[in-house]
Amino acid sequence: MILRIILAGVVIFFSGCASVPNDQLYRDLGEMDGITRLIDEFVFEISGNAKLHEQFKETDWERFHEKLVTQVCELSGGPCVLEGDSMAEIHKGMGVKESEFNSLVENLMVAMDRLAVPVSAQNRLLAKLAPFHKDIVEQP
Ligand code: HEM
User: Fold this and answer.
1) pLDDT tens, 77-109?
2) Quick check: CB of 36 below 6 Å from ligand 1?
3) In whole angstroms, what is the distance from residue 129 CA to residue 76 CA?
4) What domain range is 91 assigned to?
5) What value does the mean pLDDT take over residues 25-33?
6) CB of 28 closer than 6 A to ligand 1?
7) Does residue 29 have its Cβ closer than 6 Å to ligand 1?
8) CATH number at residue 94
9) Is the residue at 7 inside a domain?
10) How many domains does the chain have?
11) Is 100 inside a domain boundary?
């Protein structure tokens, strides 16, 4: 009897874990539609940002947009996987400066404000992106 209760507890615990997917941020961002609109605005901001013009002058905007949608979908717990090189490998040798990184993050914040993304979701997305700082910025 005791064994059955323990077993039931274990089963409930694991099925509970499986039935609560950690996709709250993905849902708060409006799933694929919301994320696509967010990246539309983000890419629009980046492409018009004079401080970033030199870095992005040869960018394939369509590919960049698609990769960013996939990345934000994945990071927020959505059903996407960004394949390919790591953030460090992609940005290696670009000489990305701290000021450029901050400017790009400001572009994202403007995009999120424009779409009225709730502040708590904004903060959670920024927190997911923050660890990339060390992979992208090349210290002088
Ligand atoms: C949290 C910050 C950032 C994230 C999440 C991010 C993410 C990405 C992603 C997903 C790609 C596409 C990779 C691919 O094509 O496979 C990319 C490419 C690129 N990133 Fe970043 N990036 C960030 C910051 C920056 C900064 C600060 C710069 C420069 C100022 C930069 C410059 C570029 C450039 C030039 C490309 C190549 C675009 C192309 O030629 O198609 N990134 N980044």
Assistant:
1) 999 999 999 999 999 999 999 999 999 999 999
2) no
3) 10
4) 23-136
5) 98
6) no
7) no
8) 1.10.490.10
9) no
10) 1
11) yes
